[in-house]
């Protein structure tokens, strides 16, 4: 039982947030001062000639804008075990592997207690707003969270994905309890060595505690869709396990088996009930509320590269609200969703001015040659920016690579809409298409023939320069039997949907060859996920790479090896 005392004071949290965002400019100054004072002895800052100054003007004059590439030599020395203060005053003992699915390899970023604290602050803030509109009762959460193994770098530091570092931190569980959000699965499942087995057990735990489940969540919503797609395959096995009280032999790890044995007792009524409920569904519509009658909502990051999964998520959710979670990265948190009832497509994130120092490069101007960042309170509504982070974990004026749009202000702190990752671009000559452009094209093309039950399960893209001139290749994994004529039309529609002037004009004069739609075998994107998990990425942070570059050979190979049909556009 949770004592009432331990629960968060939602009103107080909201009040703190309101007062901080009313005073965003001063809070930003104080935050920068704090970061620079705590880390003034770090070699990186010492070499930049700040000489103890902590004001934004001196900071901007002395410290350059950097990318991960620029910091790599410093981070590498930390990873290799150097104990001198390199990027932070206090030594870094833990490293996060960012999912890195865009570059084809994980990249290292520092993690520390201050970053953990800001993570919990974001969790608490958005919980306060969420709980005001969608109060939950004492119960449990079905959370599809997976904590891959932490390893040791050769310099003796602990390394894991950011979510792993957070889930394994001793404060995490207490924080979840205070938010009445404790996971229904035992630690052995969350920390299990094989995510396929953990996923099965998460589902089983959810069913065992079905009457107590208050919400269903994961870090990125892809994991929720993935979980219920898996459920469609294994539901009868799950029912059998519950009826007999014996765990399927597919779960082989002894620690996971013994933890599950403590929860699983023969319960023929429950097994039959779930069987009956599943059999009564029409194409799995409304599966989640059917299985978890007390669930109030579904929660996870649903914006950006997660948007393409919303349709499927809504299908499983029936009438349950979908609440998009906060905005952050392995490098640091940025903003909280304080309007949880807004549909995920419109979700925005209010920047918390005390969790880092933020700057924004206006994208209207010529960014590459002469980027002129502005401060948090200087941004303009309606404009797009690239976001720059200065964190408590040793990153100073770090270009995160995300593009955001300012939609409004909450008091004096901006509300951001996530637009896309900057470097995810389809480009051959003068054409420029972002991840968002690709997503819109795929959406349009998948609706070409509404009567055909065409469901695009997942997609990616590639610029193929082996033809002359080069052309865009779009990979689709689809559900259902779809005829050649329809797919040909989809291919034409994709080609027409990239409306960037550079693309259209290049296509018209054949400076870019016809777009190619390649349909891949069922399970191809699962193979890609497995590939990344094999490289040490956590399922919790997985994002399908939407554009596969030539250096990402393995993923390109998986896609190309699984092509079953291909179509060339005749749209131009
Ligand atoms: P990771 O490298 O795994 O830490 O992922 C961080 C990246 O995920 C960010 O830089 C964003 O591109 C993306 N991301 C994180 N939160 C959100 C969000 N709420 N909406 C859209 N994209 C997000």
UniProtKB/TrEMBL annotation:
It comes from the Eukaryota. Keywords: Ligase. GO terms for cellular component: cytoplasm. Pfam families: GH3 (PF03321), GH3_C (PF23572), GH3_M (PF23571). This is FAR-RED INSENSITIVE 219, JASMONATE RESISTANT 1. Belongs to the IAA-amido conjugating enzyme family. Residues 349-421 form the GH3 middle domain.
């Amino acid at each position: 039982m949770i004592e009432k005392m331990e629960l968060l004071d939602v009103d107080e949290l909201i009040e703190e947030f309101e007062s901080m965002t009313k005073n965003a400019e001063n809070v930003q100054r104080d935050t920068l001062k704090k970061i620079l004072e705590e880390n003034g002895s770090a070699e990186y800052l010492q070499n930049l000639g700040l000489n103890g100054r902590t004001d934004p003007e001196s900071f901007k004059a002395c410290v350059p804008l950097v990318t991960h590439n620029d910091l790599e030599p410093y981070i590498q020395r930390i990873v290799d075990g150097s104990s001198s203060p390199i990027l932070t005053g206090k030594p870094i003992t833990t490293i996060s592997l960012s999912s890195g699915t865009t570059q084809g390899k994980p990249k290292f970023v520092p993690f520390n207690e201050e970053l953990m604290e800001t993570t919990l602050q974001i969790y608490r803030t958005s919980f306060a707003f969420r709980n005001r509109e969608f109060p939950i009762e004492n119960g449990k959460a079905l959370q599809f969270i997976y904590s891959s193994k932490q390893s040791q770098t050769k310099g003796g530091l602990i390394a894991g994905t950011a979510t792993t570092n957070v889930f394994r931190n001793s404060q995490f569980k207490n924080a979840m309890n205070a938010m009445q959000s404790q996971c229904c699965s035992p630690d052995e499942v969350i920390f299990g060595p094989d995510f396929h087995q953990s996923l099965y057990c998460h589902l089983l735990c959810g069913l065992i505690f079905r009457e107590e489940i208050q919400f269903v969540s994961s870090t990125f919503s892809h994991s929720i869709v993935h979980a219920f797609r898996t459920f469609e395959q294994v539901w009868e096995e799950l029912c059998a396990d519950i009826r007999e009280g014996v765990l399927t032999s597919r779960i082989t790890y002894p620690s996971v088996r013994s933890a599950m044995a403590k929860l699983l007792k023969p319960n023929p009524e429950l097994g039959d009930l779930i069987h009956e409920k599943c059999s009564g569904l029409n194409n799995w519509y409304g599966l989640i509320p059917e299985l978890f009658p007390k669930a109030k909502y579904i929660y996870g990051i649903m914006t950006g590269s997660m948007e393409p999964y919303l349709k499927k998520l809504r299908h499983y959710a029936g009438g349950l609200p979908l609440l998009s979670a906060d905005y952050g990265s392995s490098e640091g948190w940025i903003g909280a969703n304080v309007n949880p009832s807004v549909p995920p497509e419109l979700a925005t994130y209010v920047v918390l001015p005390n969790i880092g120092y933020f700057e924004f490069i206006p994208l209207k101007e010529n960014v590459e040659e002469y980027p002129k960042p502005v401060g948090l309170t200087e941004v303009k509504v309606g404009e797009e920016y690239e976001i720059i982070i200065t964190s408590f974990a040793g990153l100073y004026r770090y270009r995160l690579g995300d593009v955001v749009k300012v939609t409004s202000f909450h008091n004096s702190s901006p509300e951001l809409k996530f637009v896309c990752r900057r470097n995810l671009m389809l480009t051959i000559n003068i054409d420029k298409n972002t991840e968002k452009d690709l997503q819109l094209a795929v959406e349009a093309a998948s609706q070409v023939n509404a009567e055909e039950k065409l469901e695009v399960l997942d997609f990616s893209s590639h610029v193929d320069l082996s033809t002359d001139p080069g052309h865009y290749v779009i990979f689709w994994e689809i559900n259902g039997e779809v005829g050649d004529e329809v797919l040909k039309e989809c291919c034409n529609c994709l080609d027409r949907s990239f409306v960037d002037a550079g693309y259209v004009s290049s296509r018209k004069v054949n400076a870019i060859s016809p777009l190619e739609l390649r349909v891949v075998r069922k399970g191809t994107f699962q193979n890609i996920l497995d590939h990344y998990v094999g490289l040490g990425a956590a399922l919790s942070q997985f994002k399908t790479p939407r554009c596969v570059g030539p250096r990402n050979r393995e993923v390109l190979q998986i896609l190309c090896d699984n092509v079953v049909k291909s179509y060339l556009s005749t749209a131009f």
